[in-house]
Amino acid sequence: MSLRKLSDDVAVCGQIRPEDMKQVRELGFKTVINNRPDFEEPGQPLHAEIEASATAEGLAVHYLPLAAGMYPSQELLDQFKAVFDAAEKPVLAFCRSGNRSGQIYMGACGQAQ
Prior knowledge:
This protein has one domain: Alpha-Beta Complex (Protein-Tyrosine Phosphatase, Chain A). The protein starts with a strand and ends with a helix. It has helices at 21-26, 47-56, 74-86, 99-109; strands spanning 3-7, 10-13, 31-34, 60-63, 91-94. By secondary structure, the protein is α/β, with parallel strands linked by helices. The protein contains 4 helices and 5 strands. The model has no long low-confidence stretch (mean pLDDT 94).
């Protein structure tokens, strides 16, 4: 899992799998935000599978998908900010490559530190 730290409170990465949740917890993350829509590509784990595994590891998990190639709407940015502000930190957000998650975080929460 290749993480990109955007601030003291958030990192982004590419697709994670249900079996990665133990490592996510061991790395100190408390909350996971999934920005990748289900069925974006064959073989990708569904959000429900990720959520079940994350919950079993004691992690909070949120599903705020953004389709590839789309710009985040103000509604999505507002939802992300509300989730992020209320979340126990640090937060790990992911999508296919981490780029969309970074774009959403920057649009919702401002500049990386």
